[in-house]
Amino acid sequence: VKMAGDSRFPDVDTDGSEKNEETEIVVNVGGVRQVFYGDNLNQYPETRLAELINCLSGGYDSIFSLCDDYDPGKREFYFDRDPDAFKCIIDVYYFGEIHMKKGICPICFKNEMEFWKVDLKFLDDCCKTHLSEKKEELEEIARRVQLILDDLGIDASESRWKRCQKYIWKFLEKPESSYPARVIAVLSFLFILISSVVMCVGTIPDLQVVDAEGNRVEHPTLDSIETACIGWFTIEYVLRLISSPNKLHFALSFMNIVDVLAILPFYVSLTLTHLGAKLMELSNVQQAVQALRIMRIARIFKLARHSSGLQTLTYALKRSFKELGLLLMYLAVGIFVFSALGYTMEQSHPETLFKSIPQSFWWAIITMTTVGYGDIYPKTTLGKLNAAISFLCGVIAIALPIHPIINNFVRYYNKQRVLETAAKHELELMELNSAEGKAANSKSELEILAREGKEDPFHSSRLKVSHSDTFIHLLSEEKHYRTRLQSCK
């Protein structure tokens, strides 16, 4: 052990006579040696390397508070840190900014910057973005793990109603929590499909019946199936609302608003049918009911609650607003230009189908999107040439933004898969650490019991019980050890 008064360290500048600006030190980080001068390091006096210059006059207690080891003969400081990250961090002394190299974990790099006492403001903006993304990923993993732990944990201090409320919420909202929950999720999915099919089949004239007023209405059997589906949706929504931990957030959620829009038209139309005739004319009631029945198409969006693929698609489209905006702008410009050219070129033909520029918009839309219904088409040579150029430009305009949109979808889908796997691995690590903690306690108990007496049969039985208790999973004791959420090292 190196002591402050040890004769082996005669080179320590205890009187502080040597000027810091002229001091040369050698730093060895993970086997990589770097030479620094005081004039460079003192630009940022609050950093650890600058403190090394100033600590030479403070004795070895000051030196070893900053580094892992020190060679006074070479004036070489030793650090057991990441050399790759250190090579990036020292750029601040020469260039005033830091760039994180590819392949370095952002969280580990942040920890290295904190160790060397370099402020994060020197990190370049592009690297800060990468760091913030990694932080969001770790927070999402932590959130998922915490949700799973909350589902596994049972708080005995909670009331019976609170525990029942949590059970109903987990039963309806988390199909992966149990087998009955998965069955309920499948049933809900089937009810949505059946209701959508019934809505479509009910419009077939051959399956409709004539009521007392001579109007064609849906078949009574289909009406009964529709009523049963609405009853299921209503019970499901009410139970989810009652068991929701945050009812205001639940009511304002987009998917729950969709659920209300899928249920509400049935009860409004039922009310209008039985009570509306007394307040307004029968024809007006029928029109209102018909308009409300059209709103039943909103229930198809309920599938998004049970489909991770639809949720991923929605998120990808949300992240692709810029690309979708460019696509619409390209098409809008092309539609305006080619419809105007088509109208102008077709005016010389006596049987022209281009009566006006606004009417030509329809032709330009179906041409540039390569649909081509053929209800409006050019008849002159210049008009046909204009049509050929328009659909070629349409293909290019549609193809250009498609690749970024697909990339957003694939990136988000892969990210969700990675986060899901990382959360499972985190839980496995917590179980393993819990088992190792119990094993260490059992081992120490073994040693104590062995010292107390090897021939006591009571001790022997305790040894066996301790060994079997080693493998009990204690997920609730995650606070007694560090996980990868707390450190990437």
From TrEMBL:
Coiled-coil residue spans: 415-452
Please list every transmembrane segment annotated in the UniProt record, as residue ranges. Answer: 183-204, 248-270, 324-341, 385-406
Which Gene Ontology MF annotations are present?
Answer: voltage-gated potassium channel activity
Task: Tell me the Gene Ontology biological-process terms attached to this UniProt entry.
Answer: action potential; protein homooligomerization
Q: Which PANTHER family match?
A: POTASSIUM VOLTAGE-GATED CHANNEL SUBFAMILY F MEMBER 1 (PTHR11537:SF171), VOLTAGE-GATED POTASSIUM CHANNEL (PTHR11537)
Q: What does the protein in this record do?
A: Regulatory alpha-subunit of the voltage-gated potassium (Kv) channel which, when coassembled with KCNB1 or KCNB2, can modulate their expression and their gating kinetics by acting on deactivation upon repolarization and inactivation during maintained depolarization. Accelerates inactivation but has relatively little effect on deactivation. Coexpression with KCNB1 or KCNB2 markedly slows inactivation.
Q: How does it assemble?
A: Heterotetramer with KCNB1 or KCNB2.
Protein name per UniProt: Voltage-gated potassium channel regulatory subunit KCNF1
Source organism of the structure: Eudyptes chrysocome
> In the UniProt record, what gene is named as encoding this protein?
KCNF1
